Structure to design on (646 residues):
């Protein structure tokens, strides 16, 4: 199976053939069993017919019973039992190996999906909802396992077992083989017609199911807003409508699956019946032709009758799992197309990513950047890096920047609305010196969040280059540069769990809580620091206030000692005056000795910083305030803007 998510009808390669071969050999052992069973039954019936003519008394019956061909019968029974045991063992080994291989392919598919998801910008408004992604990752992807483990095995049996059975039948009677061969092509023809319909319906079901999961998750997250707007009943009605749509779509899939089974059962029953009629009349002498110029024996006739159903058995099994193919292809296509067309992330290459995994401790100095010039490596290890946007032109549809006029509880769906005004008319030429504390101001939609995303490597620019500490931000340097970057998005993300887990968030929790408590106190959370072991957060940060959540996010940046560039997006949004003042004080303490870029609508926060870069409604950058010392001034004014007097 191709793990690059490319849709394909041929997921099984040579590596899986031996697994299917075990199951195919197990099926072929029935030919051996049928031959010996037919021989034993024919011998028994022939002896019984002859003995019935000679037996007239009880003594003769007992003598006839003793003289029966028991040795031949016991020998045949032994062969049948031995073949049955071997058949069960091969079937078990093949099924287990095939299932394990199918699970491994599912894991590889999920890893490929995760890699593609990781390579897309989390700020892209076209990104599918969390519920839809979770549905595709967990539920829909599981449909690949039955497709590989059952359908592909059944398909292999049809291609191998059925021809072998047909040859065995043709060795004894060409008429019965011809009847089977005429009935067989009709089955794939109708199955293909039904299969095209089943695949299309399954793909629609995957899309409807993913939409339902995404819709449900969004409504659960926005439940406080729905209650405040008295819209719970309308949301419940919409969920009911979507549930009924999923139910109708599921019934369509089941109808097609039942139809495919009915088609196969019809033609397989017709084929077996015709063979049975011919064999019966041939043994009675009414149809003396078709046995290669001879008359079939009872042994041969019984053998042909036993093989006729086994000729259709692989086809019957294929019909039973035909909907697995439709579901598997639909799942693979859904995973392949779900992330198409999204804005790419500046992604680390494999070598740089491996180095990042080895060094990602969340603390300590940055390791020397291999492959960089000595002065660039020294710039990365400096106390605070400079930031330069050289002719950068962003192209993406980002989430709408949070407005300070919004209600304290905001509908998450509103954060994913497309903001077409993000695209700038002219490239950005911005030079921010090392250690500068810059406030990014401007109306909503002017590009403040996009600028932060560009510096963090969360968005790839259409043109131009971003430099941090003089080092270009690209796939070879992004992993090392990100270890020096602290990002605070809007809103901050929290997991259900302990306070320490949310504080370190993906990094190893140290044995001593001294560092964590110091970071919490510096962020103004002394009360939480004193009872850190007892505090647990719910999903989304429930259990603490909005101001405490923002300060906890700031403390999360403080525990990463390698952070020297802070990117904060609206840290004081939706807070009361007293809490906003506490957050501003926490930001000031955290930013000491670091380069700071803050996107804000808070005039007090903007006034407290020495630099202010304004982005107008067209996305043009203009310095409104900066220190008067010549050595601290940026080397180049941004194009399209005029410096305002502070």
């Amino acid at each position: 199976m191709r793990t690059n998510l490319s849709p394909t009808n041929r997921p099984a390669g040579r590596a899986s053939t031996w697994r299917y071969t075990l199951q195919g050999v197990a099926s072929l052992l029935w030919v051996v069993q049928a031959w010996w069973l037919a021989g034993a039954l024919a011998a028994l019936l022939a002896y019984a017919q002859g003995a019935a003519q000679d037996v007239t008394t009880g003594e003769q019956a007992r003598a006839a019973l003793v003289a029966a061909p028991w040795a031949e019968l016991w020998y045949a029974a032994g062969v049948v039992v031995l073949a049955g045991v071997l058949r069960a063992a091969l079937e078990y080994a093949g099924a287990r190996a095939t299932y394990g291989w199918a699970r491994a392919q599912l894991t590889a598919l999920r890893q490929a999906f995760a890699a593609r998801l990781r390579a897309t910008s989390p700020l892209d408004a076209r990104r599918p909802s969390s519920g839809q992604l979770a549905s595709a990752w967990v539920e829909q992807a599981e449909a690949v396992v039955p497709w590989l483990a059952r359908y592909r095995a059944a398909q292999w049996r049809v291609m191998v077992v059925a021809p072998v059975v047909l040859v065995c039948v043709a060795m004894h009677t060409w008429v019965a083989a011809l009847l089977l061969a005429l009935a067989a092509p009709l089955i794939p023809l109708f199955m293909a017609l039904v299969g095209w319909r089943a695949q299309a319906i399954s793909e629609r079901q995957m899309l409807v199911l993913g939409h339902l999961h995404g819709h449900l998750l969004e409504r659960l997250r926005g439940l406080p807003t729905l209650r405040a707007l008295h819209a719970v009943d309308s949301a419940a009605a919409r969920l009911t409508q979507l549930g009924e749509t999923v139910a109708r779509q599921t019934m369509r899939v089941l109808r097609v699956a039942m139809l495919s089974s009915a088609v196969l059962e019809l033609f397989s029953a017709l084929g077996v019946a015709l063979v049975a009629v011919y064999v019966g009349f041939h043994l009675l002498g009414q149809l003396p032709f078709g046995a290669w110029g001879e008359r079939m024996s009872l042994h041969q006739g019984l053998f042909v009758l036993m093989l006729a159903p086994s000729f259709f058995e692989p086809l019957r099994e294929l019909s039973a799992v035909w909907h697995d193919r439709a579901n598997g292809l639909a799942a693979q296509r859904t995973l392949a197309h779900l992330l198409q067309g999204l804005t790419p992330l500046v992604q680390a290459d494999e070598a740089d990513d491996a180095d990042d995994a080895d060094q990602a401790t969340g603390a300590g100095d940055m390791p020397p950047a291999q492959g960089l010039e000595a002065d660039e490596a020294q710039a990365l290890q400096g106390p605070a890096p400079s930031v330069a946007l050289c002719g950068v032109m962003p192209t993406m549809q980002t989430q709408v920047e949070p407005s300070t006029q919004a209600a304290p509880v905001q509908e998450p769906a509103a954060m994913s609305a497309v903001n077409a005004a993000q695209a700038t008319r002219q490239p950005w030429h911005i030079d921010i010196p090392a250690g500068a504390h810059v406030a990014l101001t401007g109306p909503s939609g002017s590009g403040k969040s996009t600028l932060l995303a560009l510096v963090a490597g969360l968005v790839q620019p259409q043109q131009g280059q971003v430099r941090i500490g003089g080092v270009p931000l690209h796939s070879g340097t992004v992993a090392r540069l990100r270890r020096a970057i602290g990002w605070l998005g809007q809103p901050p993300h929290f997991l259900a769990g302990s306070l320490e887990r949310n504080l370190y968030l993906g990094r190893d929790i140290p044995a001593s809580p001294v560092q964590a408590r110091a970071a919490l106190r510096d962020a103004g959370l002394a009360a939480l620091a004193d009872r850190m072991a007892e505090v647990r957060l719910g999903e989304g940060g429930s259990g603490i206030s909005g101001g405490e959540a923002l300060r906890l996010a700031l403390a999360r940046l403080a525990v990463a000692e390698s952070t020297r560039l802070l990117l904060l997006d609206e840290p004081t949004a939706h807070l009361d005056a007293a809490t906003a003042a506490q957050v501003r004080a926490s930001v000031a303490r955290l930013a000491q000795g670091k380069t700071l870029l803050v996107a804000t609508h808070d005039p007090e926060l903007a006034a407290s910083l020495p630099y202010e870069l304004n982005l107008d409604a067209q996305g043009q950058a203009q310095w409104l305030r900066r220190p008067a010392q010549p050595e601290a001034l940026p080397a180049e004014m941004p194009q399209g803007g005029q410096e305002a007097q502070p």
